[in-house]
């Protein structure tokens, strides 16, 4: 199906098409490009112009460029623009403008990607659904998602993230959502904001892009909830709070094996649903999702029924049987709130020893040492048998732990990964958690390699 013609893309970007072409997709990566894609030569870590010839050789319909790349003939199918990123943004705006369906935008310090996936899975069978790939939520990820959106989309779920002040509002204005949801506000990227209140104001900026009489779905039980409400009020939004005291709230969350059986009150409707996870924070986000889908005009009962098909994305709290152990792979990101949620998931699983393998939490600012130490007092720690730590920041937690709970501390995640298979035994339930830049995911790789070796 045609996504962009040369004429439409040129009109959207103000660029010059060197020939007539039709693209069926949009790509920024030659490793995953599909025949028929429009290749966008972004300049990020490397200059995308260096890969245009390769993209065309792999069947790209055309390339979006700011110059004729070396090794590419002048009459190759190109769309030549002044600035590639600005042109991608223009394509995104044009993709949004031609779509008549409903747009749901999601942000939050924790749970953006898993919540976006919840919404996508829950909407199954309710028309053409379009959602961001992976965690494409930044200055190029949002316009790329919009540029990839089919014109006949019925529901779009757009993930919006940030790492510095002033990033969310422009992306929300580009997406122009009918519904905007904030999962939570926590001490993530605190270095750039100084205080949790600054993060709340930035998250609340997602409401600035709302369509007229749009809906703001926000967590009801946070110390900064009033800040979020004020942001929503300034945007003229209809506010729906979710949480233990919200108009969308859980009535009952009961563990059943490795799943949660949930009942919730969603804007007057009582719904039952099952989530294949033990993490209560996922159930709370599901309540927010159902509220968002309800005000977006979806069939909320049908959506609730499909939540049992959702699973936490890899690296974000997914529980898997790995040989003779159970692994909670939560190594994609970490802050005090998400680490607490990960420990709660570990505490909720039944089996052998509960072992936490933790890497540094980054970008927490001046209080990072105290925040790491405070993890020792997390209520879920009472159910954890052993804690191994990697990184200079995690040393503060390690030293704060009682002797009976201390495993090993290493300066780097690589050192811990090298001995990780020797730190576990059959029947263990193992949580691996840390900021992505801590590289604690190397431990996950080591445990997977151990399981593969044992199997082979």
TrEMBL record:
ATP binds at residues 108-114. Residues 323-435 form the Mur ligase C-terminal domain. It comes from the Bacteria. Residues 24-69 form the Mur ligase N-terminal catalytic domain. Involved in cell wall formation. Catalyzes the final step in the synthesis of UDP-N-acetylmuramoyl-pentapeptide, the precursor of murein. The gene is murF. GO terms for cellular component: cytoplasm. The keyword Cell wall biogenesis/degradation applies. The keyword Lyase does not apply. Its main location: cytoplasm. GO terms for molecular function: ATP binding; UDP-N-acetylmuramoyl-tripeptide-D-alanyl-D-alanine ligase activity; UDP-N-acetylmuramoylalanyl-D-glutamyl-2,6-diaminopimelate-D-alanyl-D-alanine ligase activity. One of its GO terms (biological process) is cell division. This is UDP-N-acetylmuramoyl-tripeptide--D-alanyl-D-alanine ligase. Pathway: Cell wall biogenesis; peptidoglycan biosynthesis. Residues 106-292 form the Mur ligase central domain. Keywords: ATP-binding, Cell cycle, Cell division, Cell shape, Cell wall biogenesis/degradation, Cytoplasm, Ligase, Nucleotide-binding, Peptidoglycan synthesis. It catalyses: D-alanyl-D-alanine + UDP-N-acetyl-alpha-D-muramoyl-L-alanyl-gamma-D-glutamyl-meso-2,6-diaminopimelate + ATP = UDP-N-acetyl-alpha-D-muramoyl-L-alanyl-gamma-D-glutamyl-meso-2,6-diaminopimeloyl-D-alanyl-D-alanine + ADP + phosphate + H(+). Coiled coil: none annotated. InterPro entries: Mur-like_cat_sf (IPR036565), Mur_ligase_C (IPR004101), Mur_ligase_C_dom_sf (IPR036615), Mur_ligase_cen (IPR013221), Mur_ligase_N (IPR000713), MurCDEF_CellWall_CoF430Synth (IPR051046), MurE/MurF_N (IPR035911), UDP-N-AcMur_synth (IPR005863).
């Amino acid at each position: 199906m045609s996504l962009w013609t040369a004429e439409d893309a040129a009109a959207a970007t103000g660029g010059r098409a060197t020939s007539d072409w039709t693209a069926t997709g949009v790509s920024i990566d030659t490793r995953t490009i599909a025949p028929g894609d429009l290749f966008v030569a972004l300049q990020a870590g490397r200059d995308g112009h260096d890969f245009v010839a390769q993209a065309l050789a792999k069947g790209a319909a055309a390339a979006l460029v700011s110059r004729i790349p070396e090794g590419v003939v002048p009459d190759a199918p190109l769309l030549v623009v002044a600035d590639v990123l600005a042109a991608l943004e223009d394509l995104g705006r044009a993709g949004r403008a031609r779509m008549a369906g409903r747009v749901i935008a999601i942000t939050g310090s924790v749970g953006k990607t898993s919540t976006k996936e919840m919404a996508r899975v829950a909407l199954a069978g309710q028309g053409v659904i379009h959602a961001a790939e992976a965690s494409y939520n930044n200055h190029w990820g949002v316009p790329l998602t919009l540029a990839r959106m089919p014109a006949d989309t019925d529901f779009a779920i757009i993930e919006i993230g940030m790492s510095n002040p002033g990033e969310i509002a422009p992306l929300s204005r580009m997406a122009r959502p009918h519904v905007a949801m904030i999962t939570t506000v926590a001490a993530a990227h605190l270095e750039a904001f100084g205080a949790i209140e600054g993060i709340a104001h930035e998250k609340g900026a997602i409401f600035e892009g709302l369509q007229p009489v749009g809906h703001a779905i926000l967590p009801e039980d946070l110390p900064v909830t009033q800040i979020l409400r004020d942001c929503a009020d300034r945007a003229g939004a209809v506010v729906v709070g979710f949480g233990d005291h919200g108009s969308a709230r859980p009535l009952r969350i009961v563990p059943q094996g490795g799943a949660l059986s949930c009942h919730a009150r969603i804007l007057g409707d009582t719904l039952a649903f099952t989530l294949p996870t033990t993490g209560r924070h996922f159930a709370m986000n599901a309540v927010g999702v159902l509220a968002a889908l309800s005000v977006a005009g979806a069939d909320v009962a049908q959506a609730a029924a499909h939540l049992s098909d959702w699973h936490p994305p890899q690296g974000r709290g997914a529980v898997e049987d790995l040989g003779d152990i159970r692994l909670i792979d939560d190594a994609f990101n970490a802050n005090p709130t998400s680490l607490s949620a990960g420990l709660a998931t570990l505490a909720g699983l039944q089996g052998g020893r509960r072992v936490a393998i933790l890497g540094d939490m980054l970008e927490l600012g001046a209080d990072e040492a105290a925040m790491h130490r405070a993890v020792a007092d997390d209520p879920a720690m009472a159910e954890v048998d052993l804690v191994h730590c990697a990184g200079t920041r995690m040393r503060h937690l390690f030293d704060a732990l009682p002797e009976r709970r201390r495993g090993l501390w290493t300066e780097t995640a690589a050192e811990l990964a090298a001995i990780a298979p020797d730190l576990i035994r059959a029947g263990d339930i193992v949580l691996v958690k840390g900021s992505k830049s801590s590289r604690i995911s190397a431990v996950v790789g080591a445990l997977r390699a151990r399981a593969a070796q044992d199997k082979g």
